[in-house]
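quick one before i forget lol
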Amino acid sequence: MTDDRYLKRTIVKEVISSRYLPEGTRELRVYLPPGYNELLSYPVVYCQDGEDFFNFGRIATIANQLILDEGVEPFLIVGVDVDKKKRSAEYTPDGQLFAGYTAFFAEELISFIENKYPARREADQRILAGDSLGGTVSLHLALAYPELFRQVISLSGAFYLRSRSLASQETDLSKLELYMIVGLQETNYETDTGVYDFVDINREMKSILEQKGARIHYGEHEGRHVWGFWQKFIPAALKTFLQIEA
């Protein structure tokens, strides 16, 4: 049975204006940890597919449990919503809306959050998280803006050929750290652009990134390309990058 304390979540809805997004705005959800105090400062987890991370990943409930019972330092979560019809165009590096979305994320979203909430401003206090193509765009944000992002959670990242090619062109990724998982039953996953072996493409991306000096926490587990699989690993992913208080 879920402890009722985990379900007492504070989630603030926000709307941010953008000069980079065609629609001009984007909806956000911001999780505030138990004991939230504006006089303190907090690391921040930035989630692609924000609505899914909260509804299907249950990340706010998981955060409460980690903070209240496991001594994880309190942190903020920012879920960035996405129109599923535009998701591929925004999240893939050859997508028509990719440049605008990544510029919005790095140049507008971060400053919006850090000016409105007591968020820490160091690169190692910002964590990017995403599932499938959300893992893809999170990695590319870290590659494009290394001064802003150094830590990435990738749940079954959709690292198609273009992503692997771009990563191969990097020279020094020694400051980059990733938590990567993939399901062993994802070897024949059908997408809108074809059928892919996600185990193979994640193994290849891991190898590419390690050759460039990145630190990888990698795991292959029994599971499919669904939130029921990813949700199980969110606690371990968060604890990889967040401090445990004494």
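fyi The first helix runs from residue 4 to 7.
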